[in-house]
Write a structure and sequence with these properties.
This protein has about 500 residues and is α/β, with parallel strands linked by helices. The protein has 4 domains: about 140 residues, 3-Layer(aba) Sandwich (Rossmann fold); about 100 residues, Hect, E3 ligase catalytic domain fold (Alpha-Beta Complex); about 120 residues, no CATH class; about 55 residues. The protein is built from 15 helices and 13 strands.
Length: about 500
């Protein structure tokens, strides 16, 4: 037979895959490709394409874009042979094998592997052998998963550290506290309960050059993720920590020390995961003292007080007045009844509040309130409700109740549990003093405090209503502010 009459070499594609590549070095897939190329050369096949899925499991059913591209190439007739390191690189689930079997039968694809030999899908015996190999691979993965789950369950029950990135507040290994970081968690937890914003606390931490456990600057979202961790209270949980408190599953006490007490953590968690709370990254942080707090004192069209929210806005140049420098004004957000200069208004209100908080009676509004046993009764009720949920789950697992009764009962218990958690959170927040309490000069401490602290103090001690100017073009005057002291206790 002449050379021209010899059969053309098989046009082959190499497929390489590795399930996990934490370092991102691709060493595993590159080694597979080298060995597959050597096999193709021995077979006399021409490698026309290489498809690589790195760090993707074939068992979990995650999309494998390169695997799908390879199958498409087979369907188009671009390749007539497949080379892989082992059959489990191509598939670890029987459902994936069946797709390959169908394709191989219709397109007459030859399959060779470096370590598992030929895969002949054109005969019943070859298909049986392939299915046996796939079943063995699937059983190995399922057995591995069972061992991992059993190990996790044992570690959960023992309250042991399960690994991962170093948690902020702890040394590497997660079992020993880092005192300075622990104080950051405790202080930030108190500040959140006192009404400070996540964005304000994060900004302050960055100014103090405090960084996250990975060395990054803080954001409101990263700070929230740290503060809602059950680990802060020495608790072990399952599932996501970001679910509402009543839906969070606590499975026991941890072996590592807590950074805050459980009541404080639960109050912070309830506050930051409340369904009514907007996502922290989308939350705007007011730049002015009275924005969203003060109310409009104008008279509405029917003679009733407006009471609309006052917001800050910038009033600048217009075509008729092009030389005006933009200036911040407060404005009635409901009906634009009035505007007033922001800086002068804020400065005046700050001085009024600074004098107010020097009064012991006003300062008492910012101090922790008494408990009178409500917190302890709430804790006892919470423990009872948690046990009821656990018993209901056990009854369902034992087929003592059906799915409908299980859902109805757990829904009812969780509604009450959410109410109890809310009351406990409010009680804990009431026991947290605002930052200026205890200062030698509370008035000066208020003036020196961050804006979010000043706004929280203002909400607690003073009501502010802005009145319309007496006549058009009137200069700023303190008479435009109607101030009312919040009730004393």
């Amino acid at each position: 037979m002449s050379r021209t009459q010899q059969q053309a070499p098989v046009r082959a594609a190499i497929y390489a895959r590795i399930s996990r590549d934490r370092a991102g070095e691709r060493a595993g897939v590159e080694q597979q490709e080298r060995e597959c190329r050597a096999l193709a050369e021995r077979l006399g096949w021409e490698v026309v394409a290489v498809y690589v899925d790195n760090d993707i499991s074939a068992y979990k059913g995650k999309p494998r874009p390169q695997y799908r591209a390879m199958l498409d190439a087979v369907r188009r007739g671009d390749v007539g042979g497949l080379v892989a390191w082992h059959t489990d690189r191509l598939h670890r689930r029987l459902v994936d094998l069946e797709e390959l079997v169908t394709l191989a039968e219709t397109k007459h694809v030859e399959i060779r592997t470096v370590t598992a030999g030929d895969v002949d899908l054109s005969t019943a015996g070859g298909r049986m052998n392939a299915r046996i190999l796939a079943a063995v691979a699937q059983q190995e993965v399922e057995h591995l998963r069972e061992r991992v789950q059993a190990k996790r369950k044992t570690m959960l029950e023992a309250g042991a550290y399960r690994g991962g990135k170093r948690p902020f507040g702890y040394r590497k290994g997660g079992m020993v506290v880092r005192p300075r970081e622990a104080e950051v968690v405790a202080r930030a937890s108190r500040d959140v309960l006192a009404g400070r914003s996540l964005k304000g606390i994060a900004r302050e931490l960055n100014q103090q050059r405090v960084r996250t456990s990975s060395g990054a600057e803080w954001t409101s979202l990263s700070l929230r993720d740290v503060l809602i961790r059950p680990r802060n209270a020495g608790l072990i949980h399952t599932g996501k920590a970001s679910v509402p408190t009543a839906e969070l599953t606590i499975v026991g006490r941890a072996q590592w020390p807590a950074l805050v007490d459980e009541d404080t953590w639960r109050a912070v968690h309830a506050l930051l995961t409340a369904p009514s709370r907007r996502h922290p990254n989308h939350k705007t942080d007011p730049s002015w003292l009275l924005s969203g707090i003060a109310r409009c004192g104008a008279t509405g069209p029917e003679g009733q007080p407006c009471g609309g929210v006052i917001r800050a806005t910038s009033i600048g140049a217009t075509p008729s007045r092009p030389n005006i420098t933009p200036t911040a004004h407060y404005r009635c957000a409901e009906f634009a009844h009035l505007t007033v200069l922001v800086p002068k208004t804020d400065d005046y209100v700050r001085q009024v509040v600074a004098e107010m908080v020097r009064d012991a009676r006003v300062l008492a509004l910012l101090s922790p309130s008494g408990d009178d046993g409500r917190m302890e009764r709430g804790r006892e009720r919470r423990a009872v409700l948690v046990r009821q949920i656990e018993q209901t789950e056990a009854d369902y697992d034992a087929d003592l109740i059906d799915a409908r009764r299980f859902k109805a009962k757990t829904d009812r218990i969780r509604v009450e549990l959410e109410e109890v958690e809310t009351l406990l959170a409010e009680g804990t927040r009431a026991g947290v003093a605002l930052p200026i309490v205890g200062a030698r000069d509370p008035g000066q401490a208020f003036l020196d405090a961050p804006l979010d602290v000043q706004r929280q103090v203002l909400r607690t001690v003073l009501g502010v209503q802005i009145m319309p100017a007496a006549y058009r073009g009137a200069a700023w005057s303190s008479d435009r502010l109607a101030l009312s002291r919040v009730g004393e206790r």
